[in-house]
Amino acid sequence: MPILPEPVQNLITAFERLPGIGPKTASRLAFHLLRATNDSAQQLADALAALKSATGLCQVCFNITLAGQSVCDICGSSQRDEAQVCVVEEPLDVVALERTGGFTGRYHVLHGVLSPIEGIGPDDLKIRPLIERVKAGSVREVILATNPSMEGDATALYLRQQLLPLNVRVTRLARGLPVGGDLEYADQNTLLRALSGRQEMTN
Amino acid sequence: MPILPEPVQNLITAFERLPGIGPKTASRLAFHLLRATNDSAQQLADALAALKSATGLCQVCFNITLAGQSVCDICGSSQRDEAQVCVVEEPLDVVALERTGGFTGRYHVLHGVLSPIEGIGPDDLKIRPLIERVKAGSVREVILATNPSMEGDATALYLRQQLLPLNVRVTRLARGLPVGGDLEYADQNTLLRALSGRQEMTN
């Protein structure tokens, strides 16, 4: 006989499919919801159901936006400098950069990175629309903010090659020691990058 | 302007309410579902919606069962010894014990532990039905399998006092070194319990 009733097992299975959620966590979540008031399971169910139907992609930068809104708030804002475009891998990266409060330009979300192993080429990402955007003329600087990983670097390199002929400044986020980090625990590559990227101290 | 569209923020908030899920994990899950095919978010939503409506509690042992099924599979099975009742805190504990395959009796789920600090007394748990079950006469042994924690021990002690007058054998799960564990890393209390509970070796 099965140990768990089917509805509980179904929920555990659905949770287990999420990234970073193993069998133990999935059961814990399911049993938590079973014990909780009716509301919390229903709220989660409603939020999930609304997720896809109520969201879409910005037609300019491909960030997540409300369904029916063709241009996102950032692309639609006159406060944001259209001459600077920051290229990121995922919508979550936009959230991270916005939280810093230090960027006043606009974004372009690639929705992935080049990865020959996984068969992801330039046409699988939002690269062509980026080129078109730059060709349109108002962009002066493209900041490549893909992750400092092998794929992120390769994607940045590819984008640089594509963008340079278009007479636009192409920059990449700085590498170095993380703020609050400890030199002793920095890995070799980070330390090398911090050394080679050292800057003049100005009082 | 808000950084995230409302439907995405709603889902993140709903995930954050779950135990062990912080803001970072909640965003990661929400954006994973946003990127995934329509199915996985919908499957999770359906499983959540079905959870409460399709499940109920067994009227004998208070384990989770299918809605409309008044007695669970274990309590309804003639294969399971009704003379042995294993008392656990939560339905998940039944799953853990069933996985061992080493118990052929039945269960009783308390749905919590006594906790004066949180205001949980005997009447908030399924203690009275347990006493009634034992009074009915067919139970010979009650195995107290509440957690080896302060509250679990206190609850076991309370149950023992209530059960002893009923002329039933009351046992508690053994304490000692976990199998595969390392004596060097065992905490002091576990080691003390392992010492005081030492047993004769029989080849």
Automatic annotation (TrEMBL), chains A, B:
<keyword id="KW-0233">DNA recombination</keyword>
<dbReference type="InterPro" id="IPR000093">
    <property type="entry name" value="DNA_Rcmb_RecR"/>
</dbReference>
<dbReference type="InterPro" id="IPR034137">
    <property type="entry name" value="TOPRIM_RecR"/>
</dbReference>
<dbReference type="Pfam" id="PF21175">
    <property type="entry name" value="RecR_C"/>
</dbReference>
<keyword id="KW-0227">DNA damage</keyword>
<comment type="function">
    <text>May play a role in DNA repair. It seems to be involved in an RecBC-independent recombinational process of DNA repair. It may act with RecF and RecO.</text>
</comment>
<keyword id="KW-0863">Zinc-finger</keyword>
<dbReference type="InterPro" id="IPR023627">
    <property type="entry name" value="Rcmb_RecR"/>
</dbReference>
<dbReference type="Pfam" id="PF13662">
    <property type="entry name" value="Toprim_4"/>
</dbReference>
<dbReference type="Pfam" id="PF21176">
    <property type="entry name" value="RecR_HhH"/>
</dbReference>
<protein>
    <recommendedName>
        <fullName>Recombination protein RecR</fullName>
    </recommendedName>
</protein>
<dbReference type="GO" id="GO:0006310">
    <property type="term" value="P:DNA recombination"/>
</dbReference>
<dbReference type="GO" id="GO:0003677">
    <property type="term" value="F:DNA binding"/>
</dbReference>
<feature type="domain" description="Toprim">
    <location>
        <begin position="83"/>
        <end position="178"/>
    </location>
</feature>
<keyword id="KW-0234">DNA repair</keyword>
<dbReference type="GO" id="GO:0008270">
    <property type="term" value="F:zinc ion binding"/>
</dbReference>
<dbReference type="InterPro" id="IPR006171">
    <property type="entry name" value="TOPRIM_dom"/>
</dbReference>
<keyword id="KW-0479">Metal-binding</keyword>
<dbReference type="GO" id="GO:0006281">
    <property type="term" value="P:DNA repair"/>
</dbReference>
<comment type="similarity">
    <text>Belongs to the RecR family.</text>
</comment>
<dbReference type="InterPro" id="IPR015967">
    <property type="entry name" value="Rcmb_RecR_Znf"/>
</dbReference>
<keyword id="KW-0862">Zinc</keyword>
